[in-house]
Records
---
Amino acid sequence: MHRPLRIGVLALQGAFREHAVALRRLGAEVTEVRLPGDLEGLDGLVIPGGESTTIMHLAQLYGLDEAIRGYQGPILGTCAGMIVLDRKHLGLADLNVDRNAFGRQVKSFEADVALAGDDRPLRGVFIRAPRIRGLGDDVEVLGVLAGEPVLVRDGRLLLASFHPELTDDPRVHERFLAMIEEAAHVRA
Ligand code: GLN
């Protein structure tokens, strides 16, 4: 029997609606996560871009910081969502980031990201984007911009410096759903 994947999108602040649209387009069932109990029964979780200090603050207020630390499933973190997962915040991803480190503090831009194993570049929207630093040994680089990692995988975590939910290209979300299917096969 095949049921749609159930994906939670952390809906405290930021671009959560756009992620929900992108995931529904790919056939997933989407729940907005605002309380620890909303994590139950999810096949995967998305932490969107926005403002990482605000997302962390609200997560702490609702007990979602501990709940997400304890969540065992695959997680997609984009932009502020990646910051929230790094060593200095929730400590789930084996990397650090420099916030707002692409160009000046206010700089936002679009650029083509080169993907590993795919000839077609992916258009990336970078909004006061974090720079990835200090990658752990087991972190796999899946996308680069000007020689720097901007899309990486650390086991069950998929992390992007940019905003894949703001373009029509579904490849990052597809990859995340494929990671979830893979994990389910390994468990079965
Ligand atoms: N600059 C933001 C932060 O530090 C991230 C920006 C984004 O998510 N687009 O949280």
---
Amino acid sequence: MRIQALAVSETLAMAAKSRELKSRGIDIIDLSLGEPDFNTPDAIKEAGIRAIQENFSHYPPVSGYSDLRTAISGKLKRDNNLDYSPDQIVVSSGAKQSIANVILCAVDPGDEVIIPAPYWVSYPEIIKLAGGIPVVVSAGLNQNFKISPAQLESAITHKTRAFLFSSPSNPTGEIYSKEELKALADVFARHPQILILSDEIYEYINYEGTHESIAQFESVRDRVVIINGVSKGYAMTGWRIGYMAGPMWIVKACTKLQGQYTSGSCSVAQKASVAALNGDPAEINKMVTEFKNRRDLVVKRLSAIPGVKTNNPPGAFYVLPDVTFFIGKSDGKTTITSSNDLVMYLLNEANVALVSGAAFGAPECIRISYSTSVDILNQGIDRMAHALSRLS
Ligand code: PMP
Ligand code: GLU
């Protein structure tokens, strides 16, 4: 059965485990799930309330209300200088569904999809759901977790159908520069059969420079599908609104697919998303400033723990330290043989919930989500440092 080949989402599984331990009265510090701890800004909530009062309670168009697709088209011009008409956009129930729609429409059984590792946990599973073959190209901390054009080139075969990546990246927090994206686009220019899925959900959570999209390069433009949404930038994870923008053939395919299995996304959440996209960016900037303070704190404190090696991630809200140093070590009771073991050790001994790097194709790492208060982060890192110091 198809479902048996599918792994559970490790991020959601760890969040569920930590919720369960908390409900049993155990004082867990949860640094597992990646979602802003802020509440949705008031103006956006009010737009949602108005939509309920104005009876937006009927089926919306399958690809999304036209005012939302117009707002997305305007956002792509305003923020990215990209021209996508509202017709080239499909709104879905979260960016996760947008990715699944595109992969299910474009990838046939046996097709290969290249994903740079560390990758976001759901990418290989969504590819497998479509019968595709995830082809993993790994980049470690020594190359800032970013693949080179030569690595990309050597992974391409006649079966390669798509390439799927995120920048800013979950789980590494790294960002491909304009020059790096151009170098990858130059490789793709030689392989016109490859569709490029550019997951830009962390676009706004960028502490250095402006956001760059691979869609800006003419040589690949008609093969790029942009994935984005309101979850991260506007603290709207629960509203479940994401979107794709791309060439008409894939837009039509995704609309047909979605018309058969969700009928489109929540009407009220769509109206709130219009307010988000057209709203005051000051709200986003406040959150990003706070994320940056937390990034600085977490990187400084982790770097001071003997054996923990980390990059200084310029975006998203994750750090992915390399913990190879601890493999083979023991506290006298438990021997750590993998990053999975280390995550379980930290959960049991330090009551800190993290996600193993193995879930992201980086078995030498653990992922820390720092989307929580400075106070909680400090407590979590104190506990981690203490538990790690007991391993020898
Ligand atoms: N892509 C990446 C890289 C993510 O981290 C997430 C986070 N959940 C998603 C897509 C999905 O976001 P959404 O909440 O819009 O489904
Ligand atoms: N993207 C977040 C994470 O990686 C949320 C969980 C999920 O959607 O898998 O933690």
